[in-house]
């Protein structure tokens, strides 16, 4: 796919980015995936060579990501994607992350990393790698019934091992069916929590108009669910907890994942902020490698964060269960081109001079 055209707006030109190098890199990096497509990254330029990467206080998940582990993972992925974009422009980007969780009590952009640039010889293959940032997509569509090729998965396994993480997978039909059922049950169990449901409801976009107004969140088109159903599920949830509606909701969720033949997971150290940053690097490069091989991915976050579902999945795997902490589970496969989720414009990622740091 041809990358979208890079816009040059007055708002971007008004920053310290006099030659537009940061805006050009941001144009590609903003396609980084994030939980619920909340896009927590903000950038404050100090000069043409340095910037502060911050977490937006209005784009956080204090109840469903209380440690900020998965928000740190996505911010680390964003920094990796930014580095890939800069490499195509002839710059090396280094990121020094703050060794602390994100403080959700601060109502201002929270500094998470210092970013620095230095010149780098341009490489022809860097442009292709940069294009992959725009081609990577989550696919919640049905897959075509094929197993992901083992050669691709073995590449991911070797790449993950370089950062001290393990990557496993199964093509076993019974295990794949069981994993999808565990995810379905976990999603519905999580939504029975009013706190979790209220936090997620902020990011639900049941109509085209709402999605296009905010350029973020979970758009019903990308979720592969009718907008009216998605809205009613959250706004009239009691009616979906039992009986025919509950059965319909679970059947639609499972049916939408038909054709899946591969489940895969990452495991490794996942306790400290440094662990979360390293996991983000692992996942950023793995997803791009999968995308370059034509493989789509759909994370099963609830199985990771819901303790009962997590244990149920590990027990189901039996002897092949990971030895270390499983921090990501996903179904993988080959699908039609999914709808593209939206992103906030590049100019909105830059912090202006009136926004204060914690």
Number of distinct helices: 15
Label the structural class: alpha+beta
- Global outline: globular
Compressed to H and E, one letter per element, the order equals: HHEEHEEHHEHHEHEHHHEHEHHEH
The parts where pLDDT drops under 50 for at least 5 residues are: 1-14
Kindly state the mean pLDDT as a whole number? 92
Share in β-strands: 15-25%
Major beta sheet summary: 4 strands, antiparallel
Strand order of the largest sheet: 1-2-4-3
Q: Tell me the number of strands.
A: 10
**Distance separating the two termini:** 40 Å
Q: Give the % helix.
A: 40-55%
Radius of gyration: 20 Å
Short synopsis of the structure:
The protein has 358 residues and is α+β, with helices and mostly antiparallel strands. The protein has helices spanning 10-13, 21-29, 69-89, 124-135, 150-161, 173-191, 194-201, 208-214, 220-223, 227-235, 243-255, 273-292, 301-305, 307-317, 346-349; strands at 41-45, 50-55, 91-97, 110-119, 166-170, 204-205, 218-219, 262-267, 296-299, 326-333. It is built from 15 helices and ten strands.
Structure description:
The chain is of the alpha+beta class. Helix content is 44%, strand content 15%. The protein has 15 helices and ten strands. The chain has helices at residues 10-13, 21-29, 69-89, 124-135, 150-161, 173-191, 194-201, 208-214, 220-223, 227-235, 243-255, 273-292, 301-305, 307-317, 346-349, and strands spanning 41-45, 50-55, 91-97, 110-119, 166-170, 204-205, 218-219, 262-267, 296-299, 326-333. The strands form three sheets. It has a four-stranded antiparallel β-sheet, with helices on one face. A hairpin with a 4-residue loop joins strand 1 and strand 2 (50-55). It is globular and about 60 Å long. It starts with 9 loop residues before the first helix and ends in a 9-residue tail after the last helix. Mean pLDDT is 92; it is low at 1-14.
